[in-house]
Amino acid sequence: MPSLKKIAVVRVAIIGTGGMANSHAKRYKDIKGCKLVAAVDVSRERVEKFSAEHGIANVFNSVDELLAWNEFDAVSIVTPDGFHAAQSIQCLKAGKHVLCEKPLALNHADAMKMVVAAKKAGVINMVNLSYRDWPAIQAVQAVIASGKIGDIRHVEASYLQSWIPSKVWGDWRTTSAWLWRLSTKHGSRGVLGDVGVHIVDFATFPAGPIKSVYGKLKAFDKAKGNRVGEYVLDANDSAVMTVEFANGALGTIHTTRWSGGHANRLFLKISGTKGSVEIDSERSTNSYKISAGADLDKAQWKEVACKPTPNNYARFIKSIRTGKQDQPDFSRGAEVQKVLDAVIASDAKGVPIKV
Ligand SMILES: NC(=O)c1ccc[n+]([C@@H]2O[C@H](COP(=O)([O-])OP(=O)(O)OC[C@H]3O[C@@H](n4cnc5c(N)ncnc54)[C@H](O)[C@@H]3O)[C@@H](O)[C@H]2O)c1
Q1: DSSP class of residue 192?
Q2: Alpha helices, DSSP H, located in 122-213
Q3: Fewer Cβ neighbours under 10 Å: the N or C end of the chain?
C-alpha cells in the first residue's frame, strides 16, 4: 500500500452541485487546512451558480475533465446514488482521497469494489453517514461500550420523513432531487437506500452488527399511472425490518416518507439488562436520555448533555492531513450496504435472510 503524503492545505473538489453539495461547501469553509478549488456537475448552469455562491474558481462538467486538470487532492462525491461507485473508483485510481455520500453504492458487491479500490490506492476514504456528527450518537455508543446498561436485549430505531404527503420540503412532483429518489431506473433504492442506510448505521454503530433480517418494502401509489414524466415511481417509500443482532438482541428498524408531522426524525432506544438509553432528534441531538442505576426501579429517566464531536468533513480533512484513517470509512459503508441487500432479498423471498 502506498504511504500517505502529508498535506498542509487539502485542495478539495466537489462532484455534484445540487442540494446536499451546499452543506459540503459550507462545512469545508469552516475547516482550517482545506480549500475548495473546483466543482463538477453535468449541468453547466448549476455548477456555475454553485461556484459563484461558494467562491470556487474552477468548474467542470465531468469527472474526466476534473482529473485531466488534476490540481486537487481530494473529492466530495455528492451526485445521485447510482453514480457513487464509478466516480469514487475513478478518483481513487487517480490517487485522490474520497468522501462519498451515502449510500456508498447501490449494492454490497459494488461497495466492496470501492473498498478494494480504496485499499489499493492507499488513500483516505469516508462515507458521509452524517448523523455520526451528532454528539448524542457518539455518547450513546460510548455508554453502551462502557457496559453501563448491561447486555443489549432490545433495539427500537426509526427514521421518519413526510415529504410525500406534504410540501414540507417543496413539491416532490416538480423537483428532480425528489423524483430521482422515487425511481429505481434513476439509481435509487428508495427510502431504504436513501435514509434506511442512516438508521441502520445509527442503530448498529452502538448496538453492534445485525445477524439476520426480515424485511418488508412498499412503494405506494402516488401519481397517475405511477409516473411523473421520465420518472417511474417504483422505488420503495416505506421499509420495515425485524432484526436479530450478533449479540442476540432483537430489534425493529423502520423508515418511511409518509410520516406526516415529522420532517426528519431519527429515534433510537437501546435497552439492556441494566437499563435503557434513548435519542430523539426532535428533542435534542446534543443530549440523550438514560434510565439506569437507581432510576431503573422507578422507571425514571435523566437527560445527559454530550460534549461536541467533529463532523465527518473535519474528520476527512484531518485524516488526510495526519495520514490516519478515521470512521466511518468505506468498509463501514459496505457493511451497512450488506444489511440493505439482505432487506431487499428478504422482501423478495418473504423469509428472514442471514446478513
Ligand atoms: N448525508 C446526508 O445526510 C445526505 C443528505 C442529502 C443528500 N445526500 C446524498 O447526496 C447525494 C446528492 O443528493 P442531492 O439531494 O444533493 O441531489 P440533487 O439531485 O439535488 O443533486 C445532485 C447533483 O448531481 C448532478 N449530477 C448528476 N449526475 C452527475 C454526474 N454524472 N456527474 C456530475 N454531476 C452529476 C446533478 O445535476 C445535480 O446537480 C445523494 O447521494 C444523496 O443520497 C446525503
Answers
A1: I
A2: 135-146, 176-179, 190-191, 197-207
A3: N
pLDDT of residue 1: 40
**Mean pLDDT, all residues of the chain:** 97
C-alpha grid cell, residue 285: 441531538
- Indicate which residue's Cα is closest to atom 9 of ligand 1: 101
Q: Where are the beta strands (DSSP E) in 162-226?
A: 210-218
Q: Can you tell me the distance from the alpha carbon of 98 to that of 12, in angstroms, rounded to the nearest whole number?
A: 10
Helix ranges restricted to H, the chain = 19-29, 44-54, 63-69, 84-93, 108-121, 135-146, 176-179, 190-191, 197-207, 312-322, 330-349
Ligand 1 binding site (Cβ under 6 Å of any ligand atom)? 15-21, 40-43, 46, 78-81, 83, 101-102, 128, 130, 176-177, 194
Q: Is the pLDDT of residue 5 over 80?
A: no
**173 close to 223: Cβ distance less than 8 angstroms:** yes
Q: What angle do CA 155, 160, 162 make, to 5 degrees?
A: 170
Q: Report, as an integer, the average pLDDT of 231-235.
A: 97
Residues of the chain above pLDDT 70, percent: 99
Residue 285 CA to ligand 1 center (angstroms) comes to 25
Question: Which pLDDT value is given to residue 8?
Answer: 83
